[in-house]
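Teaching note: in complex prediction, the entire set of molecules is handled at once rather than each chain in isolation. The prompt given to students was simply: 'Predict the structure of this complex.' The entities are:
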Amino acid sequence: MKNFSQWFHNILEEAEIIDSRYPIKGMNVWLPKGFKIRKYVLRELERLMDEDHDEILFPLLIPETELAKEGIHVKGFEEEVYWVTHGGMRELNEKLAIRPTSETAIYPMFALWIRSHIDLPIKIYQTVNTMRYETKHTRPLIRVREITTFTESHTVHEKYDEANDQVQEGIAIYKRFFDSLAIPYLIHDRPSWDKFPGADYTFAFDTLMKDGKTLQIATVHNLSDTFAKTFDIKYEATDGSHKYPYQTCYGLSDRVIASLIAIHGDEKGLVLPPLVAPIQIMIVPIVFKDKSEEILSKASEIKNILEKDGFRVNIDNRDIRPGKKYYDWELNGIPLRIDIGPRDLKDNKMIITRRDTSTKEECSLSEDFPSILNSYLTEINSNLKDKAWKFMREHISKIDSLDRIEKTVLNGNIGLIKWCGNDDCGKEIEEKTNLTILGIQYRIDGDCINCKRKAKHVISIAKTY
Amino acid sequence: MKNFSQWFHNILEEAEIIDSRYPIKGMNVWLPKGFKIRKYVLRELERLMDEDHDEILFPLLIPETELAKEGIHVKGFEEEVYWVTHGGMRELNEKLAIRPTSETAIYPMFALWIRSHIDLPIKIYQTVNTMRYETKHTRPLIRVREITTFTESHTVHEKYDEANDQVQEGIAIYKRFFDSLAIPYLIHDRPSWDKFPGADYTFAFDTLMKDGKTLQIATVHNLSDTFAKTFDIKYEATDGSHKYPYQTCYGLSDRVIASLIAIHGDEKGLVLPPLVAPIQIMIVPIVFKDKSEEILSKASEIKNILEKDGFRVNIDNRDIRPGKKYYDWELNGIPLRIDIGPRDLKDNKMIITRRDTSTKEECSLSEDFPSILNSYLTEINSNLKDKAWKFMREHISKIDSLDRIEKTVLNGNIGLIKWCGNDDCGKEIEEKTNLTILGIQYRIDGDCINCKRKAKHVISIAKTY
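The expected output is the structure of the full assembly:
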């Protein structure tokens, strides 16, 4: 893709996902078509979260005193917090922060809720809007000032090991989620200087955009007992002693939808994974004067049968040329199109076109066509997944020499390099290359690419959003 | 109910709907059980809205210049707007309002979206959090500073008459919605001094709480072309001329859930209409040592059969006394409880207890019990509806003399009085009685209760939240 940035901007506009002309920079309007995709994406995420978390909803605003309690945390966010200072004509007694994330809103309540070990574990999540005063160049869904769709989870446990296990559970949920959207990912143990403010350690999911930049699409943090101590969250253990519990938090945002669009889309427009396509099958009746009634009634019949089987299906009976219809539904990324014309009617068949491959197949209407269509949808999902993973894998490049990092990465690749694990050396690598270390992929022998001491880790390095 | 206010406060806490201990007054936390009720309420509302509206999502913040454009509108809200003045450490160039409602966020975009008559009508809605800096005494779900669940609709039409029709469509949707929740309502044409700031006229839905105060639970407004003129929204008509379109807006909030809880609840706790009960049927196995396995397996069998039929059902197999279980599920308002013990197992039957009437019925397991349970749920809904409407109707009282208004109303009634339609006279009635005129119920002959001129309307007068 020659100009990914321009393509991404255009597709959001043409497929009517987002209107970025709202009169505040970095804050955008979800249009009906975009909103529907968002809805199905959230539905899948909620289904996975609900297996082992309770959904709750906390207030938007956080008192300054609460936000400021955890020193490292507030330092990480103080440059990006929007402050509410007035109610009506009056100045408020205390400034209120619009949540940049909800740790400091939720944890004071945890201190009230948690009394005993029988109250643990707690596993909750919420989907909310949050705000960050971004000073960098904003871009819809990727770098925004209002994150409209932040799904954040917060858990509390008796033991540190249970928090470790929960981090792995969070990672497992997100893997299932991204797999269902056919989005490829690398999981990185973020370097210490890039972990969540206040966290013990941070794992992040990164994916690769078509312009060779990586996009962080989810993070999972072990908070240890840092916040518990700050917010005085304590539980009575079985032996009667009072202890600080251990916490995790993990979250993802609108960027999931950005990557969904960016990774699968092509020059014709969106290509939606069937699970989140608001319409999975579009029926286009090819109408001629004398046969029109018969064809429309057959189209309705097919639609009814498919809807009964749970497909999301629609008929495009607008009075315009079929070519214009094809154009629209390709742009909108509908996974399957069914054409049915006078000749098909005679032969009792229909033509099925796949959005992902543009291939056409005849399908007899006397066969069990819902199960045939269902297997097409399954194939589309696995084809999208294979293609996307292949693209990402082909753009991961092992690099043995510092000199070659910048060129390889700027050529659209994620670099894999050996690193000693020393923070100063890591920051030096970033400075020398003007790139970002994503974190540890795995541990290994060899020499550090920079300081030549014994390497402990293989780390990814990339140009990031 | 002796002390409705205390009862309402307690039930929110005991049934774990809302935690009101959040450290900002008037901003509350939705707990898991409350959130689930909210989810099913929203699901029904969205189902109705989606029939003829597109769901969208607008930003939280509104530039001061946009909010201030419509003079009457801003005057109505300026005392209650929260203002964002700083991003990080910097003062913003322009103050940003947290939306008190979204007209001034949405309508500048309408000006971009609407070009021609073929772009009309537009019918959109969104469910968002909004803020109002309430100076009055706050109360969870009823009078809050963060309205967490504001579902607002906005429509645009070519003709004034179409906007009138849309007002009626909005009213029709809300009627269906409240009927499905068994919430009774009166629809009032609000007096001119109490209409939505900027509206031509306002219809409101009011319901009656058990302490005799009315609660406004929905409003529907005809905005005429006032906002179109302010925001320069124009369309090209078929004759080529450029015209201002006509608009409506309508919305409802968390108060729907407040009235759901307050109207149906009793001394034992919540009583939930089956449509929005997160669990509709709770199975309580009465376990004795030797038969426990058989009973639990029968309970699972019943659960599976019911789930296949679409019921939301659960088994309470906690190791505690049945009495404690009954207490919990009554408190949580589960519509139906199934008890099954060793003797029932022998007789191949179960005992069904209704939450609304506390009546118990035997039901043979060899019968088609899912359809029997389904008819119980239907009966519960109509019983709740009948009871609630009866209560409200019994507390509407025709009043012929000014002297008797205050006493009748403060006795827990909505007063129906004759009114000439003159604004000054209406305000005088409010002042004399210290009550609120809800608006016109219907038109009639007779004399005004206050000024004795010819009455035009029968209006409701009440003590309101």
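Point out the following to students. Chain B touches chain A through 51 residues (CB under 8 Å). The first helix of chain B runs from residue 4 to 14.
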